[in-house]
């Protein structure tokens, strides 16, 4: 399946390391979301990723893998998303892991199925922030500079503002989106209601809904009803 991420507005992110019932998965996959993104910051293995992929594959919804470790690269996804953490202090998360993976698999990859994501992690308490030693104390100008770096310097198709676990600063999200010319702005973090989904949708191009799936499925499903026509793109 050829996947066009430019059409994605709403995405559910599922963590292979967390349990989800068949019934919940059924409702998520049939919800009308644009895609399911599989990924997590810890405990992601080849086995739990294969298991989740095979369950999602019973549905027509596009499914992408956000690769966070080399051992959990599972073939068969529609798209592979590679985070490059622009504000990581540990270079392993900017180019180090990528270098290792390309040494191993570089000649085998189908580049049409791969996109780089310029990640900017902004919640200092998020597991991903700690893992990558991200510098999260950034103002709007800092974030804009990283966003332009991803968009104009590195020609990445995605800039991902990651507030995982907390709802972010929507004014900063809006301002960041304004500096992008080609890249799509994904926002993720703390969307736990339709109201917050709408605020994020008014500021970003695509919203990513994660944790609430596991704590309040009904609220998570509500977020699909967000209206994207209000943000002028
Ligand atoms: C996590 O950006 C996603 O990578 C979504 O964040 O889990 O806080 O919804 P939440």
Automatic annotation (TrEMBL):
CDD domains: PcrB_like
Entry's EC annotation: 2.5.1.n9
Domain of life: Bacteria
Cofactor: Mg(2+)
Residues that, per the record, bind Mg(2+): 15, 41
A Pfam match: PcrB
SUPFAM superfamilies in the record: FMN-linked oxidoreductases
Recorded metabolic or biological pathway in which this protein acts: Membrane lipid metabolism; glycerophospholipid metabolism
GO biological process: glycerophospholipid biosynthetic process
UniProt key word Magnesium: yes
GO MF annotation, one: magnesium ion binding
Reaction(s) the record says it catalyses: sn-glycerol 1-phosphate + all-trans-heptaprenyl diphosphate = 3-heptaprenyl-sn-glycero-1-phosphate + diphosphate
Keywords per UniProt: Lipid biosynthesis, Lipid metabolism, Magnesium, Metal-binding, Phospholipid biosynthesis, Phospholipid metabolism, Transferase
Binding locations of sn-glycerol 1-phosphate: 13, 160-165, 190, 210-211
HAMAP family associated with the record: GGGP_HepGP_synthase
UniProt record similarity statement: Belongs to the GGGP/HepGP synthase family. Group I subfamily.
NCBIfam families in UniProt: GGGP-family, PRK04169.1-1, PRK04169.1-3
Subunit structure: Homodimer.
Primary role: Prenyltransferase that catalyzes in vivo the transfer of the heptaprenyl moiety of heptaprenyl pyrophosphate (HepPP; 35 carbon atoms) to the C3 hydroxyl of sn-glycerol-1-phosphate (G1P), producing heptaprenylglyceryl phosphate (HepGP). This reaction is an ether-bond-formation step in the biosynthesis of archaea-type G1P-based membrane lipids found in Bacillales.
Protein name: Heptaprenylglyceryl phosphate synthase
Organism of derivation: Paenibacillus pectinilyticus
